[in-house]
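Need the bound structure for flavin-adenine dinucleotide, inputs here:
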Amino acid sequence: MTRNKHHVVVGAGAAGLAAASAMRDNGFAGRITVVDADPHTPYERPPLSKEYLSDRRLREIVAETEYRRLDIELRLGVGVCRLRPSDRRIDTSDGEELVADRVLLTTGVAARRLDVPGAALGNILTLRDAADAAALSARLRAGGPLVVVGGGFVGLEVAAAAVDRGIDVTVVELGELPLLAAVGPEIARRICRLHTERGVRILTRRTVDAFAGSRAVESVRLSTGERLDAATVVVGCGVVPNDGLARQAGVACADGITVDDLGRSSDPWIWAAGDIAAHVNPHLGHRGRIEHWDVARRHGAAVGASMAGNATVNREIPYFWSHQYQHTLQMYGRGRPGDRVIVRDSTTEPGFVAFWVRDGRVAAAAALDEPRDVRSAKILAENRIEVPDETLRFAGTDLRRLVRQLRSPDTRRDVDVTG
Ligand SMILES: Cc1cc2nc3c(=O)[nH]c(=O)nc-3n(C[C@H](O)[C@H](O)[C@H](O)COP(=O)(O)OP(=O)(O)OC[C@H]3O[C@@H](n4cnc5c(N)ncnc54)[C@H](O)[C@@H]3O)c2cc1C
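Answer from helper R.:
Posting the output first, comments after.
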């Protein structure tokens, strides 16, 4: 039935490749073309702010043999310039025209740039792709000082990589604390401590007024009037969705491309997945884009299955991780204002497990350097399990036993999981 059909995926990232592979797994026998403006063999983005900065090795998302096995035609270094829904055609930057029965947009996001005097000077970098990472890695080898503008995960990971090379680092953050929106004040403070203990200066409630230098940046002027010397600046001030193709094609977009549970946009020809897709994750309960690797993969796989005719909704609780120094932060779900945050310190510093409790039930969980406990905490969060605060807070609670007992109807009433 599908043999004569053609699906085109725009974007060979986590979502696009998971979708293409899921189309095959779900019986799509037609032609699949994946187009990406980036010339590199598709690579994982998370290592770009971590391992890549020291070993300069791109990690392929899938082995090259997979494209052959799945009969996926990869067109790299080719941008899509225009979608024409009325005649189902796609214009590419190499002057070709693809005719598709369905199009999937997994175009992701672009780094936001600062619009201040001096922003075009050399050595003011953003970090989104392999070329950015190569440029940053070269600058880190040249030495500091480094100013990171924006205390998000990518900015802090870059700060950690630079400190590991003995570079003097300052992080400039507009809000009260880095990571505040992502993890709330309790956890943000703990993560900041990892940096300040290693000598990173974190300057909060400030923004950049201007960059100065002759050709390349030499200093950064802050809104407080302070001036920071800088050999390199990394701007990590958020992202903007790559939704230009969709908007130009008349597709409904808000912050990203608005899609339904299956990934369909307002135009039945165009679907979207991953960072670009404003969708409703059942665990978050509201529409929005989620910028996590694991979510992009799972959402892409579900949308790919749906495009192949097997309607699939991604119901997984959102998950992300971040590596800073030798530490790993992992989080399932998202906290909301009004949640109570209960932190259980690990026996080895600075580890912890944190629970966001909403209406008496665990709604999200995070952990630093506790990979086994965070998996149990995930189960508590995804099933919205009610657990007394003291049990969550007590370091002796065996979370795996707790999960087993709470899941078993026989023992639900009488739980003793203290170690
Ligand atoms: C430096 C960095 C570190 C990160 N670290 C983590 C982490 O530790 N943990 C975590 O959970 N998440 C992390 N993320 C986020 C994660 O990588 C993203 O959520 C994920 O890559 C999104 O996948 P995607 O397929 O939706 O989009 P992307 O991976 O952004 O892929 C989009 C692709 O579309 C292509 N494209 C765009 N427009 C066009 C066009 N017009 N024509 C052709 N091609 C086009 C782009 O070239 C790109 O390859 C990190 C992101 C970055 C940048």
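Comments: The CA atoms of residues 161 and 401 lie 37 Å apart. The first helix runs from residue 14 to 25.
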